[in-house]
Description:
The protein is mostly helical. About 80% of the residues lie in helices and about 0% in strands. The protein is built from 8 helices and no strands. It has helices spanning about 1-35, 40-50, 60-75, 80-95, 100-105, 120-135, 140-155, 160-175. The longest helix is centred in the first third of the chain and has 35 residues, at about 1-35. The chain starts with a helix and ends in a 6-residue tail after the last helix.
Amino acid sequence: MQHFQKPILLFLFFLLTACCHAQTKKIDGLFAQLKKTKVSSERLNVILSICNEYQSLNRDTLMNLAVEARTLAASQSNKEKKGLAALALSNAYMQWGWADSALAVLEPVLVNENEYAKSIYFKMQRIYAMIYGSRANYEKALSILYPSLSGAEKWKDTLNMAAIMNSIGSVNIAMEKTEE
């Protein structure tokens, strides 16, 4: 049996390396594109794409890009871009554990959900709920997540459904309700 462990471990190592490399390649490609981009609207789009990969970014890099995105978005009339920039900055603040700052940035843009594509609004709602979850206000977090899940199901937005269900699970675990 031990004879097979080394090849299996080696295979798993290469598999994980290949998966991680693909993510890095995507982000590296976006950074290369960012270096070439001079027009502010195009630059904003690339920065928002990079910030969408917030879980794979260094938090300093995320913060710098999110601040630049918010500055660039402020000079445009596109409310959806302003919302995405606020989402990016909220994610950056949450990476630092600054829930109050994340809430202060996100709450004003959540006023009218009709200003955003549904998938963007569901992402905003999810981070909004997770801000409350990070403050141990689990009931408030769930009161945001469950309606968001219903909306994502209605729109058949499977990516947001999965993220929201994962967040519901995280909140339930934090509440020590592992049976749900």
